[in-house]
Amino acid sequence: MVAKKEAAKKKRIKKKNKPAFNPLNLGFMKRVKDRWRKPRGTANKKRRKCRFAGALPKIGYRNPEEIRGLRCDGKAEVLVRNLNDLAMLKGRKDVVARIAASIGGKKRALIKSQAKELGIELANLRENYPKK
Fold first, then answer.
1. Which residues contact 47 (CB under 8 A, 6 or more apart)?
2. How far apart are CA 35 and CA 22, in angstroms?
3. Which residues have a Cβ under 8 Å from the Cβ of 62 and sit 6 or more positions away?
4. Which of 18, 47, 70, 107 is the S-S candidate for 39 at Cβ 3.0 to 4.6 Å?
5. Is there a contact between 26 and 34 (Cβ–Cβ < 8 Å)?
6. Each residue of 68-102: pLDDT tens digit?
């Protein structure tokens, strides 16, 4: 059991830590929402790159190509909308399937049972989440 956990830890990938790219005055003014907007004013401290104003998004924060878009366990996520999409993933251990949000309960149950047969890991099963 302990050996499995150690092996899983070794496989995990580490992505870069990025600062929160918040707009200026977030938390001081009620009308400023928590989403990024490029600073455009001539006197804007954030646009002028004053340190106290916080970080601006830059290309340097990007992750390396080989780990970009991967989960922390090193596997890629594939969106599954039907059984044909799931069948294409048969035998692939480097991917995790995620059932699309628009899929209803009946088809979701079919996809879940088919994934179990094919040995495909599902990312968004209800059993994976704690009960409220």
1. 39, 40, 41, 56
2. 6
3. 16, 68
4. 47
5. yes
6. 889 888 899 999 999 999 999 998 989 999 999 99
